[in-house]
Structures are given as structure tokens and as C-alpha cells.
Amino acid sequence: MPPRHFDGKEPLGTLPPASLSCLPVVAVSGYSNSGKTMLVERLVGELVRRGYRVATIKHTHHDNNSSAGKDTRRHIKAGSVATMLAGPHELEITRRAREGASLGEMIAMMGSDWDILICEGFKKEPLPRIWLYQEDGRIMMRVEKPGSDTDTREDMVLSDERHELSDENISKVCDMLEEDIIRPRRGRVSLYVNGKEVPLTEFPASVISNTITGMLSALKGADGIESVNISLKRACGGEKSWE
To answer: What is the DSSP string of 97-132?
Structure first.
């Protein structure tokens, strides 16, 4: 059966309940030069146009050694756990990575001020995924749902023979992301202890959300709560006190 053209009706499915706390996250994966970055760029532009706040993570096998951050690289090499390159219009934060850090830990570093997170790469993570590859000069797309049977996934044409992604197809992919990823996960609770994610099912997530928002609603300046970030660092015995 020849591959069909993408019509935006292929659902992405849902994450397992304990996987990344059912965050609004989708992966775009494929081999090198398959069009991943081009697709992510177009999706970000269209979703922002629709009023969503979008965050992205790109997986790489190399550290960032760009000349723009050469001085902050010196900070990291000297032992700093985190450093920021502060420019007039952008802030670039570099953190020392723990070896084997999970995607959940990376997401925790991104904060929560976003409606959807698009991960470029991360082929082994159990995420709703858009696979890209090239065939006969066209960009092909395959939608993968966690736990699905590889043999049942259907290939779809995402670009034309000129290797271009049409505005219509980009709009259809964004429709799919809105339907399956963004809207069902607008409200979410994420818990990280000692930098590691603690998976939450619906009941404890609801208890935490209701308890915290209830407590904060009595505080001055905490009106109209949309998101809450709490950072707690306990003092450990034996620490030096500076006088």
C-alpha cells in the first residue's frame, strides 16, 4: 500500500500514567538530515502564532562550545554547577549535567512556563513521537504511540517532491498536537525530589495541587494562580555557618 498524505487525523495517543507525569511533551525523531530541525522550527512558529508558549530540547552527543559562550565555558570547567550568559535579549543558562541524567530531570530544569515541550531526538524515550525520514525526495512522517506495535504504524507524506513542508501540513500537525497533547494536559503537577522526578498518579497530584493552591490563596499577592514553582532546600547537618 503506498503511503498516504498526512491528513491530521492520526492521533498521538497518551503517555503511560507514570511516564514523565503525563506532561505535554512530544518528540520529533529521525536520522541525520531527515528534516527534524526544520519541522520543529515550523511547528514552534505555528504554535506560537496560535498563542501557545513553546519550549524545546534538542539532544546532542556534543557539548556546546560556541564562541559566544567561551567565557561561561571557563566558569563550568572551573567547577561552577550553573552559569548564565546574559545578553540584551536572551539569557543562556549552562548547567553541569549529571552523567545519565534522565529526560525528566532535564524537563525539570526548563521550569513550567510553557504549554508544550518539543523534544528533538530522544529516540528511546517513551513519548508520543513523530518519526521523520526521506523517501524519493519527500519527507515522510510516521506517528508512534508509546507501547504501539511498530508493524501497525502508517507512513504519511509530509512534504512534496520539492522537499518543502506546506503551511497546510504544518497546520494539520499542529491541530493534532493541540488535540492530543496540549489541551488534555493543560493542568499538570510535577514533583522532583533531589533533582529526580517522582511519578504521580491522578489522586496524589490532585491532593498536592488543591493543598498548595488552597494555602497560597490566603497569601497577599497570590491572586489568579496559573502556575506555582516552589523550591525547597533543607539545611544539612555539619554545614558551615558563615558569620
So the answer is: PPTT--HHHHHHHT-S--SEEEEE--TTS-S-EEEE
What residues form DSSP beta bridges with 29?
131
117: β partners? 25, 55
Residue from 219, 192, 29 nearest 111 by CA = 192
Instruction: Give the C-alpha separation, 164 to 45, whole Å.
Output: 16
Strand pairing category for 155-157 and 4-5: parallel
Residue range 146-199, pLDDT digits in tens: 655 554 455 677 776 555 678 888 898 899 899 988 988 887 888 888 877 788
Backbone angles phi, psi at 171, to 5 degrees: -65, -40
The owner of cell 507512513 is: 155
Query: What is the set of domains in the chain, with CATH numbers?
Result: 4-62+91-188 (3.40.50)
pTM value is 0.75
